[in-house]
Amino acid sequence: MTDHPSPRVQTLHDIRSSLDDTMVLLSLHEVGAYGALVAGPATAEEIAQQLGLVARRLKPFLELAAHLDIVQHDSGRFWLHDGDAKFFDPSLPHGVGLPSTTLVKLFEVKGRGAMLLRGSDVEQATAAGGQSSPAQRADFLRYMDSVSREAARELAERIPLQEARRIIDLGCGPGTYAYAALERLGGSRALLVDRPEAGPEIARIAAERGLTDRVEFQGLDIRRDELPRGHDVAILSAVVHCYSEETNQRLVGRIAGALAPGGCLLIRDCALHADRSGPGEVLRFGVNMAISTEEGAIYSAEEVEGWCRAAGLRDIRTEALEELGENYVVIGRR
Ligand SMILES: C[S@@+](CC[C@H](N)C(=O)[O-])C[C@H]1O[C@@H](n2cnc3c(N)ncnc32)[C@H](O)[C@@H]1O
């Protein structure tokens, strides 16, 4: 017998304890505690007074946050790390920092993990279409847009054409990837395709970018509806993780068949290792897809390349993308 838990037991305890860490990280965000520290160092009592919180409870939350290096702490005062204000400043655009999902909502979904494994129905995650309210939809689209701009520029650089007339962005979300492609390929126009309900908010975002004249929106179910034909560039970004292998195989085949001759397809998603051993971030995303969608899953670039080969595309290759975590783009030509 030993007084100390074995390293294996300690590992299990640490994983279990990370639930408390997550709860503290997100609760403080939700009540605006980091935002309150943007103005400068403060005690738990001062923050509690400013935000109408319970100081006795806030203090241990902040102390653990400091221990976890989320904030800094000395002699009862807390402050943000240099450079962190941009993540938490409430006056900055939505979505720059942590996502705005409330803790209750998060745990409502994740707390059903065991039930979902036993076969309970999933509650579809809020997204651009479906059951979401207009406000949830706008939230989702604006969040995607705010985190994807650099990644979209990175993807646009990989388009293997020097010029193009017509671009199609399938499952476009806010349209961020199409806007970057338009910027790179002067003289081109883009057709943005997503669920019909997303149209009005996407039109607002395109207008804010000054691109109303170069884009059009078409509301479609890309799994079932006939796909618009004759595009030089087709972008399918962060969509294959929404669907099963069979659905994706069919979808990629139909997109390839609708491309203009010589046109290219770019499929972007998170990069699962070929042996499915990591990265951890992608495996966590796979769990999220499993508990929040009917058929969503994560795929390696090798699997996506296989769908492109089966669809008859040529010059198929994969390039690593780094702007937004570990992602790949699989590129093929018709
Ligand atoms: C994770 S978002 C990605 C948005 C964007 N492509 C990006 O990478 O930022 C997936 C998008 O695909 C859209 N989508 C998923 N399935 C679709 C379908 N069957 N028909 C039309 N749009 C779909 C969703 O509405 C959502 O906007």
Overview of the molecule:
The chain has a seven-stranded mixed beta sheet, sandwiched between helices. Helix 1 crosses helix 4 (55-67) and helix 8 packs parallel to helix 9. 44% of the residues lie in helices and 17% in strands. The protein folds into two domains: 7-117, Winged helix-like DNA-binding domain superfamily/Winged helix DNA-binding domain (Arc Repressor Mutant, subunit A, Orthogonal Bundle); 134-333, Rossmann fold. It has 334 residues and is of the alpha/beta class. It has helices spanning 7-31, 33-37, 44-51, 55-67, 85-88, 103-110, 113-117, 134-157, 176-184, 199-208, 245-258, 280-292, 301-310, and strands spanning 42-43, 72-74, 77-79, 166-170, 189-194, 215-219, 231-237, 259-270, 314-321, 327-333. Strand 5 (189-194), helix 10 and strand 6 (215-219) form a beta-alpha-beta unit. It starts with 6 loop residues before the first helix and ends with a strand. The structure holds S-adenosylmethionine (SAM).
Strand and helix layout:
Layout: H1 7-31, H2 33-37, E1 42-43, H3 44-51, H4 55-67, E2 72-74, E3 77-79, H5 85-88, H6 103-110, H7 113-117, H8 134-157, E4 166-170, H9 176-184, E5 189-194, H10 199-208, E6 215-219, E7 231-237, H11 245-258, E8 259-270, H12 280-292, H13 301-310, E9 314-321, E10 327-333
Parallel strand pairs: 4-5, 4-7, 5-6, 7-8
Antiparallel strand pairs: 1-3, 2-3, 8-10, 9-10
Residues 127-129, 144, 148, 171-173, 176-177, 194-195, 198, 220-223, 237-239, 242 line the site of S-adenosylmethionine.
